[in-house]
Amino acid sequence: MCGLVVAILLGGLAAVTPHGVTAVPAAAVTPHAFAAPAAATTAPAAAASDPAAASTARADPDSSRPIYRFWSEGYGNAHFYTIDHAAAQEVHSADGWWTYEGTDFRVWPTTSNGCPSGTAPVYRFWSPKFTSHFYTMNSSEAEDLRRGDANWDAEGVRFCALSKQQGDTAAVHRFWSSKFGKHFYTSNASEAQQLRANDHNWTYEGVAMHAPTSGAASPPITGAPAPRVGCQSPEMPAAIAAHDARKIMRLFGGAGAMRNAIAGGRAACVPLDDPELPWVVVNKHRAVSPIGYVPPSLTVPSSSLVGGGLRSNVVGWYERMQRDVAGSGAGSIALTSGYRSYSTQAAIHRSQVDRLGVTEGERLAARPGYSEHQIGLAADVVACGGGGCGSIYSFPDTAQERWLRENSWRYGWIVRYESGKTSTTGYNPEPWHLRYIGPDLAQVYHDGGYRSLEEFFGLPAAPNYR
Ligand SMILES: [Zn+2]
């Protein structure tokens, strides 16, 4: 079902909406207060006053039912509409991303033959890019999306409606928001009028379908709603204020769900620049913040070659990894550079730039304030043997390097600067430079086959300073 399936489908595809707008969903305020659709009036039974239509089959309003409508703040103001009671009940009870808003316009369930006599199919699409659904009765529009737009995945016919007014029907109005990257549908004439008159976030696109104004009831949605997840969780502000990484992930439903939400634009509340959180992203676009930051507590691991420890709460993970690489028979490693202060980094940067020039020098050394080493979550390691330890430059292709490439994620560390990723990370390959992001996220990173933190979180490539 959409909301549940959707949470694991996120990924960035390129291109345009059906309307040629390339906006990415922004953070969210509800664009409108939900108002119930105009009460089903005691409509005259399908009028026979239109002689032109007399020869065509008339839809039977008695078998129509109100559609269930959901809204999601976390999905950036998306709405979801379904006539499937079981699906609606499941979303309400089990998917904390969606809020049930009530029923809206009337549609017909599909039958084994397609749509009931006199009605026509409504095609449903899902866009991982826009994290929203789109519904249309226009078969050529649907065909264009299916054939020509990689942003939209066809989900088939999910209900049936009237493509033309038929007796006493209500128009279902369609809106598009380039700000939110969403469509919205309503049969409530005053809600539609409100949006058109007062809300510049939404563009009116016309009548999407026509709906009868009377007919059968939909089975009610019952029971307590699922607890709100992610940024919608009432516990989230406190977890963020406390820098409680594990709790933040748990409120999303786990590390993978949080990653999906960040990459999918549904986690605006989660800071990626807070150096107290293990997933902080520092690159050539994103300085350490504040720029003179010093970690609150540093510890030098055993068999470290130089001073400069690691953040105290991750030293244990480093030492376990160090012990296990030796235990595996691959040989031992040592930490040659962990935490580096702003001023230490300034000296390293100056010496590399003096030696190689700015362009080459900055592919090796970060500017002060732009190094992961300053946050205490980066470890440059070297291979050691009978004769002592090598340098970082002799580390590639050692047994230790191969072991870490395959196993460091088990201890919460990723190889931050891989070969082939210089245009994303801005750095030449550095197989010796490990970055701690925590075991939960590192497993998601490994399992997903990611090769840069930028790609992992759906951030732009950062090849150069701005
Ligand atoms: Zn390094």
Automatic annotation (TrEMBL):
GO molecular function list: peptidase activity
Stretch forming the signal peptide: 1-35
Keyword annotations of the record: Signal
D-alanyl-D-alanine carboxypeptidase-like core domain boundaries: 310-438
Gene3D superfamilies in alphabetical order: 3.30.1380.10
Residue ranges of every copy of the DUF5648 domain listed in the record: 66-211
GO biological process, one term: proteolysis
InterPro entries named in the record: DD-CPase-like, DUF5648, VanY-like_core_dom, VanY/YodJ_core_dom, Zn_M74/Hedgehog-like
PANTHER family: D-ALANYL-D-ALANINE CARBOXYPEPTIDASE, PEPTIDOGLYCAN L-ALANYL-D-GLUTAMATE ENDOPEPTIDASE CWLK
Name assigned to this protein: Peptidase M15B domain-containing protein
Source species of the chain: Microbacterium faecale
